[in-house]
From TrEMBL, chains A, B:
The gene is pap. This is Polyphosphate:AMP phosphotransferase. Residues 12-236, 265-489 form the Polyphosphate kinase-2-related domain. The lineage of its organism: Bacteria, Pseudomonadati, Pseudomonadota, Betaproteobacteria, Burkholderiales. Signal peptide: none annotated. Gene3D superfamilies: P-loop containing nucleotide triphosphate hydrolases.
Length: 494, 494
């Protein structure tokens, strides 16, 4: 894999002088076409051996192209502040919009490399990290972010010479960090780790490209060509997922909604007693050290129109200090949100440590309204089950407790509530013509909901089906399940 | 001012029971109208004596209204992470969108109170903080954010009783921070400071409302009424600014653009030598400790179309590591940006410590294109001079070096460049019908530019007028002025 790069190929200055102006013109032209099409973003992940001139080359790319549409990001080890959010949070937030180019130093491959270089790498952890990287890249590509990965490489001899050169010149010595000076000694070890990582994460949709880096001319031209090819690619497709562990088969499953007891109810007195009890427990829990120091909470409310989401949310927030929560009403994505992968706008809303985000509708719109209204092709919402499961898994893995409620009512109950709203002085606002339209598609929404409830009912973020024809019963059930899930998460820490 | 509040008025439970349901209905209705109109946002700043039940009352507001459109924020003392941005950054970022309500604990009044409570407050600092608060609120109101400020107050006796009560109940004792237990002793002192602050910052457009807080019923009802009145106000207007120190008189000034020597030029050889020299100095400067540990840099490029902004930017970025800068091309604001005060989107782009943001066009669009194209009334762009000067002053005060370039070319030179672009294989992209339209309005744009150059040429962020008919001359001038400004800022630290 590294044979060519370690032969340290070179290019004469005269040849470079001939090639580079052509390359620059083509790069710039390709960039403007890419920007004009606005079909996808390009993400360039940078890796490689130290002293291989990665930084210089990227500066050059910025110089050759229109740097206003290139965003270069360097992620260092997470700081204390970064750690109040899940690990993937900062990478997601930084994704470029369609038409733009993002260049990333210190991507998720930096910790992977660190692990691989350990005296005794943890094989399970390593394997998990590889899988996570593959999944992440596939999800990006499937969502309009093209990915290429450049690995800058050179021979051991050339690396040593380059380090010496950098160190001898006072104006470049700063580029060599103290820990990098050891690298020549570790060359073989590093090479082995890189080979393993590259082999496990190379793919047609997110390829690794080895850049021979000993000679500046070769390095520049090869990097430019790699970016040019990426910009010029007509389409980038992810192979369909086949892994049944992540992607469900969509044959008709039993519908959990039909198994629910819609007659469940609670008397006014029992309700008052229960409300006080569960709100008190919730209030204590969310202020406890066990919660605020290790967890955050995302609560999802889905269900038909008029299922009582708002009322249930209020019974939760009554128990919580207003400074600790935020409620996100989720409607159709805005243009700047459509320019990014679907889950981007929800990553932005992930709560920090100790905080609570409540979603009134959520990312499940992808497999509900967007599916039913045919806003996206089947392949996209089908794939979304796996993407969503992955998203929630990452959250749960970082200590974010994800609690999802489906408030289930019958069509007759919905009709009754619509009529009530029509005649209510200020609840009229809540009823729109769209609600009536959706109601006519009850069957299609129910099918979509049933599929969703089956395919995204994971061990780390299961669905709570709430029988909601009786509001009192529903509200208490919500509080109770929520309290139990938080208690469980805190217990699991010990 | 505190007479009524310190008489600790009370309201019987039966009376409260009569008033509150009406109040809630009216609040909710007013909120939905406010949301529907989407004319402005409402920002509620919370202050008051400790133990006055501020937190409880705000939780109640969230419960009474539709909490999905209320965002409660608590700002504590700035952390290390907060300090890498200017002080006002986090307040600006958190502003609610039009139609929404933001409730803020720990606003800018918290540090003001701290200063006022010192044994020997610094009178100049105090005065500056008062002025800053007044300016900030006036700017918000002028930009569609209504502001009300609630001060929760009670008598010394009632406060002492309340503290005792909270401390005795284990489920509320947490609400009393150790430092708060001293407060009864400091009551007189605190009262004096509060009075001084409230008197100096009360205004018709951003009023202080004193909430008697000893009795829970009175506190709830009075708070609800205050918010209701705010939501129901038809219009909120800031009195026009009269202070000539902040707002310029718009009588015709001398036009600095006519005084420029447009014939300045540089030979190719001199250019190459100078380029190397200034880029080297710039490269060293932006990596120096004096810069990265104490400063950030915002570079603004304005000028007619084809004035050479892009080329000048490239000569700067060639000297800087791509990880250290970002370029922001500024076009018309997007809908979600129009929902906030004009400067909001630029506050979001303020660089963190050690970083560099380069603006290809900028917030000056307010007094250039928006004025010339009559997108906003005269009073708005007139006021913008003061707002912009204030914005840049706050940046400069926090160590952000703001360097502004106007690249000036003659109409003849522009025509020549347009023609060149028309025939160039990939520069065609740069020329749009809008460029020709703007060219026909040359005179109007020149007048706007001249006014801007005069009225925003401040000591902390002066304009650099660059004669740019000769690109080589312009690029070297830009680099030179930039280097000198950074050097100056670092020198001033000592």
């Amino acid at each position: 894999m590294f044979e060519l790069a370690e032969s340290d190929p070179s290019l004469s200055d005269s040849e470079a002088k001939r090639l580079i102006p052509q390359l620059r013109t083509r790069l710039l032209r390709a960039q403007y076409k890419f920007l004009e099409r606005k079909e996808r973003a390009l993400l360039i992940l940078i890796g490689g051996i130290d002293g291989a001139g990665k930084g210089d080359t990227i500066n050059l790319l910025n110089d050759w192209m229109d740097a206003r549409h290139i965003h270069t990001m360097a992620f260092t080890r997470p700081t204390e502040q970064d750690r109040v959010y899940p690990r993937q949070y900062r990478f997601w937030r930084a994704l470029p919009a369609k038409g733009d180019i993002g260049i990333v130093f210190g991507s998720g491959y930096a910790p992977l490399m660190e692990e691989a270089l350990k005296k005794r790498p943890n094989p399970d952890l390593f394997e998990d990290m590889i899988l996570a990287a593959r999944r992440y890249e596939a999800d990006l590509v499937a969502n309009g972010v093209q990915v290429i990965k450049l690995w800058f490489h050179l021979s051991k001899k050339a690396q040593q010479a380059r380090m010496q050169e950098l160190l001898q010149n006072p104006s470049t010595a700063w580029k060599v960090a103290p820990e990098d000076r050891d690298v020549p000694k570790r060359f073989k070890h590093l090479r082995q780790a890189a080979q393993r990582i590259i082999e496990s994460t190379d793919s047609a949709h997110a390829p690794w490209i080895i850049i021979p880096a000993a000679d500046e001319n070769v390095r520049m031209v090869r990097t430019g060509q790699a970016v040019l090819e990426a910009l010029q690619r007509r389409t980038v497709r992810v192979p369909p997922l086949h892994d049944p562990a992540v992607l469900p088969t969509l044959k008709r499953q039993r519908n959990p909604l039909t198994e629910l007891d819609y007659s469940a109810q609670l008397s006014k007195d029992d309700y008052q007693t229960a409300l006080l009890h569960w709100q008190n427990r919730l209030a204590r829990l969310v202020r406890s050290k066990g919660f605020v120091q290790k967890h955050a909470l995302m609560i999802v409310f889905e269900g038909s129109d008029a299922a009582g989401k708002g009322g249930a949310i209020r019974r939760i927030t009554q128990a919580i200090d207003a400074r600790q929560y935020d409620i996100m009403p989720v409607a159709a994505p805005k243009p700047f949100e459509l320019d990014r992968p679907y889950l981007w706008r929800f990553w932005r809303r992930v709560p920090r440590l100790g905080q609570i985000s409540i979603f009134d509708r959520s990312w499940y719109g992808r497999v509900l309204v967007e599916r039913v209204e045919k806003l996206i092709p089947r392949s996209v919402w089908h794939r979304a089950y796996a993407e969503i499961n992955g998203f929630e898994h990452q959250l749960a893995h970082s200590g974010v407790i994800v609690v999802k409620f489906w408030l289930a009512i019958t069509p007759a109950e919905q009709l009754k509530r619509f009529k009530e709203r029509e005649s209510h002085p200020y609840k009229q606002y809540k009823l729109t013509p769209e609600d009536w339209r959706n109601r006519r598609k009850w069957k299609a929404y129910e099918t979509a909901a049933a599929d969703m409830l089956v395919h995204t009912d994971t061990s780390h973020a299961g669905w709570h089906l709430i029988s909601a024809n009786d509001k009192r019963h529903a509200r208490i059930e919500v509080l109770k399940q929520l309290v139990k899930r938080i208690e469980q998460a805190i217990d699991d820490d010990d």
